[in-house]
Write a structure and sequence with these properties.
Number of strands: 8
Distance between the termini: 39 Å
Largest sheet: 4 strands, antiparallel
Helix content: 10-25%
Strand order of the largest sheet: 1-2-6-7
Radius of gyration: 19 Å
Structural class: alpha+beta
Order of helices and strands: HHHHHEEEEEEEE
Length: about 270
């Protein structure tokens, strides 16, 4: 991590930021300051709550620049890489994930797509032309414990990727196909998490998450009863050797519970 110059008008510790009000004018300075302070922080629950509060305030801004989004994700990247084993930390993970989702849709950019890649997190936002949408796949082609994270997008499902999501052609009806104005077309957001500390479920003592985590969503859309499947492919980080290692199962993260009791069997 490259350290920047300490900002004179801001406190020299995270707890001191509690009463700092986030505005469009100071948002970048504040998050850059948090990033500077992180290596010396304890990351106890009080500090984490303040960091989450400041990020929440940023998400409420009218516009979020790509640079601001990059800095916020760098903060989250640093935190998740610490793999904090604390029940209080896990109480705020749902809000952290929700804020990351909302921020992704608020980022302002001029092209049809935008991506932010840190050492262990990736965010990709696209605004495809619904009339040309024939399916879309997001995949992680390279990653090795915070090193060499590479993402890729293509029209067909990935045959080889560490983790991937394929969205079928039938989703074009949720992308604002009725609008001719490209700015009214809905965005698609993909995310990748190279560490799983945000998805730990303390109620599961005999199971562990053995893959990376990927997600996909469409802006302002609630999708049900598709006539084509959304395909998620995940490779085990550690090979399942059968007897004595348990049965591999798929799991879906929700804001209410990380690993639902009802799970689909791994294909």
């Amino acid at each position: 991590m490259t350290k920047c110059k300490l900002l004179e008008k801001l406190p020299n510790n995270i707890l001191g930021l509690q009463d700092i009000k986030i505005t469009e004018e100071n948002a970048q300075d504040v998050v850059q300051h948090i990033l500077y302070l992180l290596p010396d922080a304890t990351l106890h629950v009080e500090e984490l709550e303040i960091i989450a509060s400041k990020i929440s305030d940023i998400v409420e801004l009218a516009d979020v620049s790509v640079t601001l989004a990059e800095t916020v994700l760098s903060i989250l990247d640093y935190i998740v890489l610490q793999e904090i084993e604390d029940e209080n930390f896990r109480k705020i993970t749902s809000s952290i994930l929700k804020m990351a989702e909302e921020m992704g849709y608020k980022v302002t950019y001029t092209d049809r797509n935008m991506s932010v890649i840190t050492t262990s997190l990736a965010l990709l936002v696209l605004r495809p032309d619904p009339s040309l949408f024939g399916g879309l796949a997001f995949g992680i082609t390279s990653y090795n414990r915070s090193v060499d994270l590479k993402i890729s997008v293509q029209e067909n499902p990935f045959k080889k990727a560490l983790a991937s999501v394929f969205l079928p052609k039938s989703l074009k009806n949720y992308l604002g196909i009725e609008y001719s104005d490209p700015d009214k077309h809905s965005k698609i957001q993909f995310k990748f998490f190279g560490t799983t500390s945000l998805f730990v479920d303390d109620s599961l003592t005999m199971e562990r998450l053995n893959t990376y985590v990927v997600s996909a969503s469409i802006e302002n859309a609630s999708i049900q009863n598709l006539n084509e499947p959304v395909t998620v492919t995940l490779h085990h980080k550690d090979q399942n050797r059968g007897y004595g290692y348990g049965i591999a199962q798929c799991c879906i993260y929700t804001n209410k519970k990380t690993l639902p009791k009802k799970k689909a069997e791994m294909q």
